[in-house]
Amino acid sequence: MILIGLVDDHITTRAGLKSLLERNPRSKVSLEASSGKELLTKLSKETHPPQIVLLDINMPEMNGVVTIKEMRVKYPSIKIIVFSMLAEEDIVINMINHGACGFLTKSTDPSELIEAILSVAQIGYYIGDTGKKEYYTQTRKTKTKSGFAGKVFLSEKELEFMKLSASNLTLKEISYTMKVSPKTVENYRDSLFQKLDINNRAALILYGIRNGLIPIFEKTPPSKSKSQ
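RESULT FIELD:
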């Protein structure tokens, strides 16, 4: 069972989301809040906090940007998906770079919302096709060249790990695909995080997309791991 927190200052929006999410037998809304401040207050009293929080950006008292910074410090194990009317590229990038595991607009199809919840619960991130297309379009508009955003040297293995991270593979399945141990894969991940000043898988994928290191529309073959 995936425990979910809903943080939005519109009661009707929360009610609709709760009804939608609880149609899935694998998810349950365990906490609701109308602002980041209320979320943090309630979390301080929770014995079973949610695993995932759907977080709006525009809220009173404490908005989503400030909330996500506080959450990364106080509750780093809780995964956050931004769920907002806002979709400007700089806002999305800012939220992911601060620690969000994914983003969705409020015009998202309900099936994609469920898919995002399951993806973040299972592999730690979600960046849908719409998001990838937005980055591709923005890159073409600004004529950004492919390459590294900064003078950082990445090994071939680190690049391979980055590309596989954009698939639906778990770390264990990535280790099987790369023919290395799970510990070695964790080392590749941690090295990339340190070199690129990144703190989660979604931000790593975003970096790869923006710098031409991850093919945007190419699908990674499914894992052949026996663990599947």
